[in-house]
Known about the structure:
- The protein is of the alpha/beta class.
- The chain has one domain: Cytosolic phospholipase A2 catalytic domain, CATH 3.40.1090.10.
- Helix content is 44%, strand content 14%.
- The chain has 12 helices and 10 strands.
- It has helices at 17-27, 43-53, 58-69, 80-85, 97-101, 113-122, 125-130, 158-164, 192-201, 229-268, 279-286, 312-332; strands at 4-10, 37-40, 94-95, 110-111, 134-141, 147-151, 174-176, 179-183, 210-216, 292-296.
- Strands 1, 2, 5, 6, 7, 8, 9 and 10 form an 8-stranded mixed sheet that branches. The protein has a two-stranded antiparallel sheet with strand order 3-4.
- Helix 1 (17-27) runs antiparallel to helix 3 (58-69), helix 1 crosses helix 12 (312-332) and helix 2 runs antiparallel to helix 3 (58-69).
- The protein is globular.
- The two termini are 25 Å apart.
Amino acid sequence: MSSTLTALVLQGGGALGAYEFGAIKAIFQRQNFRSHVITGVSIGALAAAVLAGAKGDPIETLEDMWDRFSVSALPSMPGLDAWLAMFGAHGMIRVAPTFLLAPLIATSIMDMAPLREWLTESVDFDKLNANATRVIITAVNAATGAYEEFDNRDGLTVDHVIASASLPPAFPMTFIDDKPYWDGGLVSNTPLRCAINALEQIDADDPEVKRELIAMDASHISPSTPQTMSDVVGRLLQIYFFGKLRLDLKLFEQFNGYLDLIEHLDQELPPASPLRQHPAYRRLMAHRKIDRFVLISGDGQESIGAATDFSRSSTRRRIERGYRDAMRTLSSGEAA
């Protein structure tokens, strides 16, 4: 009887991560659902840490996280809460004192101390590191530009999670072993590769095992021409972070096709064929196909500046839409 191994891939995207949380709520309602691998970057790294290491119920803990991230305008006025939200979700981040005192020499605008405190209070890192679910989060070495993966098999700390969300110039570099790190989304905002690699390593010699990837596309930005500096920044972030997703998906489809081809070749090749000893052939044979790729997405549209809009009304709307889109996708069996 075949079994299915599942990897959950969690994007970055600032306030758009609320859509991802809505999808997570739906996914974890699946009967007997278990994620064998969780990869995350930026806001997705926070979610990954909570899902595998929350001191309380993971979904309730993420609900609390988004409640703290959200900003409400008092009194409520149309558009005012979104405008105020641009200045930070004060339950998690605040303006850095160094930026206020000496903005020309500061290396960041915001301070993440409240977020660090919340993570320390909400996540049991011993539990996270002992979890049978493999958790991988990513960051970029700010000194070298190298993209790095951090794995709970080697031990994750609050610093690794904060590092993955340290998007410049908004947030400061996070130091790990005296090395400075920035947000992993600067290189890859959808950590597919490490999820695929981790899935391949589980029961690699069992031909009955099926492998499933679940990812979300939160970048539902409506097409429009930027009219303000805020629009320009918003569009830049969208292109920089979410523009790579389409390329990642295309490369994934191509590589999965190569694995299909090599499987057929392997069946046709004589056992003594010299091709079996070719290094490229052996490398391809070591890979395992992803049998099902579920991409949760929808038709809902966001404004250009959505990634920085932590207003409570927008956050709740995204959570609800992510939940609906995930329920529809999962119930219909849609696959990318």
